Amino acid sequence: MTSEQGTILIVGAGVAGVRAALELAQAGRQVCLIDTAPNIGGTLSQLDNQFPTNHCGMCKMLPTLGRSRVAEFCLRRSLNHPNITVMPHTELTALEGWPGAFQVTLRKAARYVDPARCTACGVCAQVCPVEIPDAFNAPSARRKAPSPDSTPPMAAVPIVPSQGTPSSPGTAAVALRTPDSELRTPNPNLRIAEKTPGVAGVEITRLRKAIGIRYPLAIPNAYSIDMQACTKCGACVEKCPTRAIDLAARESTATMQVGAVVLSTGFDEFDPAPLGQFGYGRFPNVVTSIEFERLLSGMGPTGGALLRPSDGKPVKTIAFLQCVGSRERKRDFCSSACCMYAMKEAMLAKDLDSTIQAAVFFMDMRAFGREYHKYYERAKKEYGVEFVRCRVSRVRQRASTKDLELSAFMADGNITKREFDLVVLSVGQTPSKGSARLLETLGVQANEWGFCRTSEASPVRTSREGVFVCGSLAGPKDIRDSMTEACAAAAEAASVGKLEVGTRKSEQVSDGSLFRVPTSDFQVPSPNFRVPASTLPKTGHAQAGVSCVPPPSAPSHKPRVGVFVCACGGEIGRKLDTGKLVEWSKMQRDVELATELGYLCFDDDLKEMVEAAKSQAIDRVAIAACVPYGFKAKFERALADAGVAPEFVRVVNVREHVAWVHDDVAAATEKATALVGAAIAQLRYELPSIPGSEQLDQGVVVVGGGLCGMACASALAALGFDVHLVEKGKTLCGNAADIRHTLDNPDFATVLNRARADIESNKRVHVHLESEVVAVQGHVGGFVSTLSVCSKPRRPQPEWRSACSDAQGGADERRVAASDGASDSPATQISSVPHASPLPLRRDVAAAPPEGEGTTLEIKHGALVIATGGREHVPSSYLFGKDERIVTQHAFEKMLFEPGFEKRDIKSVVMIQCVESRDEKRPYCSRICCSQALKNARRLRELKPDAQVVVLNRDLMSYGFREQWYTKARDNGVSFVRYEPERKPEVSAKEGKLHVSVTDPYVAADFTFEPDLLVLSTGVEPNDTAPLARALGLELDCDGFFSEAEVKFRPQDFLKEGVFVCGLAAGPCGIREALAQAGSAAQRVVAALAQGTTHPARVVSEVNERRCAGCEMCIAMCPYSARVKDPRKRIARVLEAQCQGCGVCATVCPSGATKIRGLSDKQVFAALDAVLT
Amino acid sequence: MSDFEPKIVGFFCNWCTATAADLAGTTRMQYPPNIRPIRVMCSGTVDPVYVIRALLNGADAVIVGGCRPGDCHYVSGNMKARRRMAILKTIMKSLGLAEDRVWLRWISAAEGPKFAKIAREMTEEIRKKGPSEMAGAWEA
Ligand code: FES
User: Fold this and answer.
1) Residues near A298 by Cβ (< 8 Å), separated by ≥ 6?
2) Which DSSP state fits A593?
3) What are the strands, taking DSSP E only, across A150-277?
4) Architecture of domain A1100-1172
5) Which of A375, A438, A552, B39 could form a disulfide with A688 if both were Cys (CB 3.0 to 4.6 A apart)?
6) A619: which residues sit within 8 A by CB, 6+ positions away?
7) B114–chain A nearest CA distance, Å
8) Which runs of E-coded beta strand occur in A853-905?
9) What number does the ligand 1 atom closest to the CA of B16 have?
10) B16 lines ligand 1 (CB under 6 A)
11) Residue A412's pLDDT is what?
12) Is the pLDDT of residue A158 over 70?
């Protein structure tokens, strides 16, 4: 039993869980990551490529600061963080106590294969007589997963002796004899029996053995047994060289103390088998989107060739059917990601073979958001994917050819029929199996579809305090939004751990208040994970951002290298003469010790290695073993005991790179010696890491005092950071002040007012109104921002009071910290005793007169968050501005809340969506306007039940749970009429009347309306942020939004460390997403600053001062702005905190002044010499 | 020339191609042992000098493996590598050196089979070409 206060439990190790774990770990928290599956990774591990980049990019979410400890390898293969404990096969069964002091009970399923002893050699799978369908390539929808407590629900790809050979009919026969439990009906292998006789088809359900691994190199890289299929014959037990298998293993339970819980159990694909009309399960050529994804994969059942399941012929025509299991009466929500992934799959298929014809059958193409509309355009124009708006009613199969015929109801009422080789069902998201039980045990409320209930104002909080949720469990969503929520949930979970135990009772239902603000009865204690400022080495900043400590040089004595060869119980020894390798190593220069060990991954042998290294005073170690993903960190930790620093340990993979891939023992041995020789040679020139010692400033500047800025400041304050909230305008709240209601919350103003009051009373947040950031210098942990401030004493302005409506109470009396610093402002107090607080806030007021214009203020801070927001686009078309009956959605909303609106003579309203957006000029979808239209239409019908409302739209973007409001609106009599962008509605004013005419291409009818009011949904555009972007050296995209470091995995980050973005500044988003982003940005700040000092840098670039000519080529090339010019010496400098060690600078440097510590030219040359001799 | 076994140096990016090699190994895909992999952080780190040095030092060919375009862990290292290798090849060609002994390939972390295939193809091709005449030119 572990008992660690403040550990955070993350339930569900899919991409959101992994992200939350990484975030918390980076912030110094201990994390326990559990999953019922035997391997982590969730659904993402089945997807090789993501939209909208059509790439993987998962490694980009690895920490960029302090990366040397963690970010070494592909994240699909390794998750090594000293603070993260991964517990697969584990289920949360009980949660007691209260936030900050929960006691959890975990049930660990019996591990028939001990992961600590399993070397993933695969011998067991070779002898296992039982074959089962491979769930990885044919997911749970097809193969009903057994319940998690009895056996691993997910299992794996087979050991493939040779690639790509479709299983012979013989295998299929075996498969049909697989012991079949009721749980696994309908038997997926029936499909194999259905193959055209005499034709070699492709089994999507490739077979694997009952003992196996979910996919090669999964995390952890250990096998597991599907106990429902296992016959307990014991063959594997006998053959296992490490005695890792115990068929009598039992499940166990454990309890532990945790501070908070994050739920991220994700989704399962909707099972389309019960929907008979699509023939899934009956027709071999109807597959789900995930199965199709696997068909596209190089590691999939067809080795990346797109072949038909029925006859193995190359696929030429594909139909994608959208909204399977979404947007129907019983499941009245939109799964949010399917339109995008269908486009992606169509494009990837066309990448494989450009002659493939792909057609997407859809109702609304929900490519909402900033980048996604462009992706849609790309699919249409660049790839020629066909988009057909209709709902497919049924799929039939031609018995002879197994071709598929779709019958579709076109919107004009006609039925069309078309034939395709393959039909892909874009299946929706459904809460993952077991989540209902999980939510019930935790006492957390679920919504009507089984997703975890959250509120718009607190998107990651559940109904139980101290339990948070992120990812698809909180509602269907894509990876980008999951990433945001994962970070936000991490931030909230981390702030719970900081409450003093017992100060608050549990079972308090989330009150829907916007933000968590520490009140006086639970003062934020000094965060336990932060190094107290007084203990930090005081190095200071010589020049902003440049460490003045000379980097450590190589030890002066002769290197003493130890070479350890792991035999892997014969796995390596069989194909490789390990004896020869050891003997050869002994002869090498600097090698003091070379020896062979049985299993280096076992503690005994590891200890032996450490002892041997100690006794010979070894200071560098080369290890010839297997894949380094899981073990390298373990070796490094163990060898640290023997005084070998981690950077002096190199692992050569002689198992996967040599022994398992080459047959010829002599040649393999030669290759192995070459590789070990290269490692020895590189170790010879290895330099010690640069210790991280630079102190990081803990203050944060948040630019923009709108909803997002306030939420972010609040979250940061709750995490113990001092925040300067810089607002250009005279008041806080920004656009949110104009929001009166939302779809989910009819009374948004109250929520907002509470939030604003919270900010004003928060001692850690210093508000600077009418101020702007004009210059920013420095780097993460050491920024100096210059603010231009209005020097008048700041009092709440009258408009502000009206803007934030009436329910303010005494809030106005609360002080807004004047930026020019009244003597009692906390900031000034802190600055007078700089080190009294654990978070020293250094603040220098420039010598400017207290009165008058042009006062500037300098703030030293560690990070900066951009929340500059956006505004409603002002249109120039549709007679806007020429007729007062034509208004925007914003204005209409205001009108709806004006007293006396009921009495106004408005009987009919027409709304036009996508006004001047999703076109050439503004090629993005604003994401929120459809929701605005829905909510305003609803409000109007409430106030005036007979008013006629017509919404002219192109695609209605009611994604996620907004779909129900769309349904309700239609039920309630709101009419929706489509128009095509090529034929926009026409508006004219004749004889004092407005005329709107439109052609609905699907009904092929013209309509003319004479509304009393025409409402234009014009969408959002970013505020003018070019000066700020320039000051920070950031890029804006062509639409003026900030472009993030990576659209999918780093939505809040920039390549420049320490600067983050949230809200409308980063692209259109709704309230829920904006608040999640605010929390996420706060978490990113914490992750960057929480350690107090910079991290040790292992692979990092260095400048040889004498050689550098100051040509600045490296400065221009560095993608991370980690290079600056030292103006005094006129040479380039490296900001170690930002350097990622990619080595681009070294390659461009014309004078050879740059070298990469850990991978210098010298080392590469030495390695080259070694491999070529 | 049939028993000639070429020596090939592979500079493989840590994030994708080296992972693909691990994957190929895990799934036991057989390929000839002629490629000697050197793990680099990114294909963008590969200085043309490394390639030249390898060829002069006795390598019969050099392969640089990186992430697919757009996938580079360091944003665009692979694009820089592509440009650099293109220039290197042009220069080699104008100097009369066998520029087709330098290969640049994108192999993503999930493409174990592709890695094995390229290793087979490359060894075969270089075997056909025979030993490189650049080898040993160092001393001259
Ligand atoms: S990291 Fe693979 S090419 Fe740059």
Assistant:
1) A48, A304, B110, B111, B112, B113, B114
2) E
3) 207-209, 211-212, 224-225, 252-258, 260-263, 267-269
4) 2-Layer Sandwich (3.30)
5) A552
6) A555, A559, A560, A643, A644, A648
7) 8
8) 855-861, 863-866, 870-872, 886-888
9) 2
10) yes
11) 67
12) no
Closest CA of chain B from A824, distance in Å: 47
Topology of domain A3-109+253-265+432-501 in CATH is: FAD/NAD(P)-binding domain (3.50.50)
Q: How confident is the model at residue A497 (pLDDT cuts 50, 70, 90)?
A: low
B131 shares contact with chain A (CB less than 8 Å): no
State how far the Cα of A709 lies from the Cα of A755, in Å rounded to an integer. 11
The encoded tokens of residue A56 equal 């993987």
Is the minimum distance from the CB of B42 to ligand 1 under 6 angstroms?
A: yes
For residues B89-114, give the mean pLDDT. 93
**Does A561-664 match A872-1021 in CATH topology?**
no
* Concatenated DSSP letters of A377-401: HHHHHTS--EEEEEEEEEEEE-TTT
Sign of CA dihedral B99, B100, B103, B105: positive
- CB A93, CB A441: distance < 8 Å: yes
Average pLDDT of chain A, as a whole number:
82
Which residue, among A91, A108, A434, A116, has the nearest Cα to A250 in the 3D structure? A108
Nearest-Cα residue of chain A relative to residue B38: A1167
Q: Please tell me which of the candidates A629, A1055, A1164 has its beta carbon nearest to residue B50.
A: A1164
Q: Domain boundaries in chain A?
A: 3-109+253-265+432-501, 120-244, 268-430, 561-664, 872-1021, 1023-1089, 1100-1172
Tokens encoding A1043:
């472009």
From the list B16, B26, B53, the residue facing A656 with the nearest CB is B26
Burial grade of A580 (CB within 10 A; 0-12, 13-18, 19 or more):
middle
**Confidence category of residue A190, pLDDT binned at 50, 70, 90:** very low
**Is A627 in Cβ contact with B54 (below 8 Å)?**
no
Amino acid at A560: R
Are the C-beta atoms of residues A1101 and A1157 closer than 8 Å to each other?
A: yes
* Partner A, chain B 5-34, Cβ-Cβ below 8 Å: 5, 7, 9, 14-16, 19, 21-33
What whole-number percentage of chain A has pLDDT above 70? 83
**Helix, strand, or coil here: A291?**
helix
Count the alpha carbons within 13 Å of A347 in the hemisphere toward its beta carbon.
22
pLDDT tens digits for range A772-804: 999 998 888 889 999 998 755 343 333 333 333
Pairing of strands A2-3, A252-258: parallel
Portion 32-71 of A in contact with B at CB < 8 A: 48, 53-57, 59-60
Take residue A39 and report the two structure tokens written for it. Answer: 């391997």
**Does the beta carbon of B72 sit less than 6 angstroms from any atom of ligand 1?**
yes
Range in A187-196, A553-562, A878-887 with the lowest mean pLDDT: A187-196
In the CATH hierarchy, which fold is given to the domain comprising A872-1021?
A: FAD/NAD(P)-binding domain (3.50.50)
Does the distance separating the beta carbons of A161 and B45 come in below 8 Å?
Answer: no
The predicted complex's ipTM stands at: 0.96
Residues B29, A163: C-beta atoms closer than 8 Å: yes
SS3 A244: coil
Any B CB within 8 A of A671 CB: yes
Q: How far is the CA of A348 from the centre of ligand 1 (A)?
A: 21
pLDDT digits (tens, 9 = 90+) for A21-80: 999 998 889 999 999 998 899 889 889 889 998 988 889 888 888 777 777 888 888 888
In chain B the domains, ranked by start, together with CATH numbers, are: 8-129 (3.40.50)
Give the pLDDT score at A1029.
93
Residues 53-72 in B contacting A (C-alpha not used; CB under 8 Å): 53-54, 57-59, 68, 70-71
CA B33, CA A666: separation in Å to the nearest integer? 10
**Contact across the interface for A1164 and B114, Cβ inside 8 Å:** no
